[in-house]
Design goal:
single chain; 308 residues; alpha+beta; Pseudouridine synthase; Archaeosine Trna-guanine Transglycosylase, Chain: A, domain 4; 3 domains; 5-stranded mixed beta sheet; 7 helices
Length: 308
């Protein structure tokens, strides 16, 4: 595990290694109780079947969740051939079966079809909203609905090994919004068979990696002997890809009061070059994160002020 930078307050990130069977919301509720923090949110939902990296934002870090660069996710997973399930994973009911099993060469030959910018229909049991209602709720109620295909990006798709005639293990590197269950479903269809996910692990989510993740059980043990502030990543840690501007103390005070700043002098001393209108940036003062701001013409407008 990388050395953590202690936070002076309970504002920051804990990277949980989620276990199988619990929902992402369930992890959030447990962490609230363990670290005794009321405000906790998660980045990148994991299905109950899935394990692995689930970043949790504590306190003021929750204001930054929507601005994380999460366009690189790494998953390893095992799929089973020959069964179509309603959820496209092992948690669902079997709908159809087939005796058709692809060979290793056939599998490898189809993988390039899924690499790059592709169009993907989410699973019927997904959190996508249809006229304001989650698709999984409509599916459970057996109501008719249609999910539209969405553009996603897959950077890499590799066959790791053939486990046996029925199962194979893969690794995928993909962008935001990609459903592994849909990849498995569509790969099976191209191979003239059926398939579903039986094991799924998220190894990486943007900045966060599994080598930095801790289980809920380990977190429970650690808080008995270690101050929580020593277990969390600072708020700014996963935001390093966002450009930063340095403020004076006077500018910081004005910004924290919601005032708009004159950006011309700040722009010049920050050596930013040209900045497109609406660009999101981090505003810092004496190496402390103050706010997320946007450039609007010659003005700098705060839209997420952090009380840390």
């Amino acid at each position: 595990m990388r050395a953590l930078n202690p936070s002076t307050l309970l504002n920051g990130w804990i990277v949980v290694d989620k276990s199988k069977g619990i929902t992402s919301a369930g992890v959030v509720n447990q962490v609230k109780r363990i670290v005794k923090v009321k405000k906790v949110g998660h980045a990148g939902t994991l299905d109950p079947l899935a394990t692995g990296v689930l970043p949790l934002a504590l306190g003021e870090a929750t204001k930054t969740i929507n601005f994380l660069f999460l366009n690189r996710k790494v998953y390893t997973f095992v799929m089973r051939w020959g069964e179509k399930r309603d959820t496209d994973d092992a948690m669902g009911k079997i709908e159809r079966v087939t005796e058709t099993r692809p060979t290793k060469n056939q599998i490898v030959a189809e993988l390039p079809h899924f690499i790059g910018k592709i169009s993907q229909i989410p699973p019927d049991f997904s959190a996508i909203k249809v006229s304001g209602t989650r698709a999984y709720k409509l599916a459970r109620e057996k109501k008719d609905y249609t999910l539209k295909a969405r553009p996603v990006e897959v950077h890499d798709f590799q066959l790791l090994k053939i486990i046996n005639e029925d199962k194979a293990e893969f690794q995928v590197v993909c962008g935001k919004g990609t459903y592994i269950r849909s990849l498995v479903r569509d790969l099976a269809e191209r191979l003239n068979t059926m398939g579903h996910v039986v094991e799924l692990r998220r190894n990486t989510l943007g900045f966060f990696d599994e080598k930095d993740a801790i289980s809920l059980d380990k977190l429970k043990d650690l808080v008995q002997t270690t101050p929580v502030k020593e277990l969390i990543w600072p708020v700014h840690a996963p935001l390093d890809d966002i450009p930063a501007i340095a403020l004076t103390i006077e500018e910081r005070n004005r910004l924290k009061n919601g005032q708009v700043l004159d950006g011309s002098s700040i722009h010049q001393r920050s050596s930013l070059g040209s900045v497109e209108p609406g660009r999101v940036m981090l505003a810092t003062c004496q190496d402390h994160l103050v706010a997320l701001v946007r450039f609007e013409g010659e003005s700098i407008r705060p839209f997420r002020v952090l009380n840390i």
